[in-house]
Amino acid sequence: MTASAAPLAIALGDPAGIGPEVILGAWARLRAGCRAPPVFVVGGPGLLAACAERLGIDCPIVPIADPSEALYASAAGLPVLALLDGPYQPAAPSPDGARLALASLQWATKCALAGASCAIVTAPVAKSALAAIGWDYPGQTEYLADACGKPYRDAVMMLAGPSLRTVPLTVHVALAEVPALLSAELVSHKARIVAAALSRDFGIAQPRLAIAALNPHAGEGGQFGDEEARIIAPAIAALRAEGIEAFGPVPGDALFTPRARETYDAALAMYHDQALIPIKALEVDEGVNVTLGLPIIRTSPDHGTAFDIAGQGIADPGAMTAAIVMAAEMAAARARA
């Protein structure tokens, strides 16, 4: 990793979940391996110190007043912006905890937009807890798009791991609604964003995009549906005419075999589970949620708050570690571009 001029900002997530412990665990793991990029956590110095003490995580907390102090503070421990705090109460979600999570996300976003951080890494939040305090976004991705002045459709979710990258073209909707939401324009619009991001943020000069079919056997010549011929194939033709190396529609049951995965840099899936099942099966401890199409970089571990195991010291920090490393690598790639 090449250090960026500005540090990474890490948003706390819901403090009652596993966010605090995986943040601490990831930083301790990276520091022990001499791979820790400059970072700071947005808020929670007392909370994180209490978590480290309770779980026996070797991670000294260094309160800072400004992101610019993070580089020097990291020599002594994990820098934490001391503008927000709260008690450490694992497995006990509350409105105050949701407010702390939201404030941390808001401040982290402001830091990224102002150039005080080179990227945001977000710990998991509980969408229901945020909704209960009046937050009206479907998730952190939509909030970030709005904060960046972008329409939701331009914020593309990609799930990434060491051996696979997948992009769901439709996300949190009922499966029955998916066919009506698909269009050639949707497929081509999101594919363009993915191709541009793979080039700019991942250093892939000519990204290869595999486009999944919607129906079994890619529709079997129209016997199982016509979306492949009517929607997906025309979108692929349009992308190829623009110089984007896209191919398909590839049947979903053939798209994620070891041999198939060697032929593309990202797979675009038609619906949520078509994209997330393979990434979670293959990259369960290293999966990263990456938001593409925004002027700022955002990554997140591909898991939830896990309230049921919070505070027990058994949460694996692997995905948070991977999210931090990927954010740093993306920031370095943008700096080189």
Query: Which parts are unreliable, with pLDDT below 50 for 5 consecutive residues or more?
Result: none
CATH topology assignment of the largest domain:
Isopropylmalate Dehydrogenase
Amino-to-carboxy terminus distance: 15 Å
Number of helices: 12
Instruction: Evaluate the radius of gyration.
Output: 20 Å
* CATH-level-4 superfamily name of the largest domain: Isopropylmalate Dehydrogenase
Task: Give me the CATH architecture of the largest domain, please.
Answer: 3-Layer(aba) Sandwich
pLDDT averaged over residues: 95
Structural class: alpha/beta
Top CATH class of the largest domain: Alpha Beta
* Helix content class: 25-40%
Strand order of the largest sheet: 3-4-2-1-5-12-11-6-7-10-8-9
Total domain units: 2
Shape: globular
Query: Total strand count, please?
Result: 12
Structural overview:
It is built from 12 helices and 12 strands. By secondary structure, it is of the alpha/beta class. It has a 12-stranded mixed sheet with strand order 3-4-2-1-5-12-11-6-7-10-8-9, sandwiched between helices. Helix 3 (70-73) links the parallel strand 3 and strand 4 (78-81). Helix 8 (184-202) packs across helix 9.
List the topology elements.
Layout: E1 8-11, H1 19-32, E2 39-42, H2 45-55, E3 61-64, H3 70-73, E4 78-81, H4 95-113, E5 119-122, H5 127-132, H6 140-147, E6 156-160, E7 165-168, H7 178-181, H8 184-202, E8 208-212, H9 227-241, E9 245-250, H10 258-261, E10 266-269, H11 272-282, E11 288-292, E12 298-301, H12 318-336
Helix pairs in contact: 1-12, 8-9
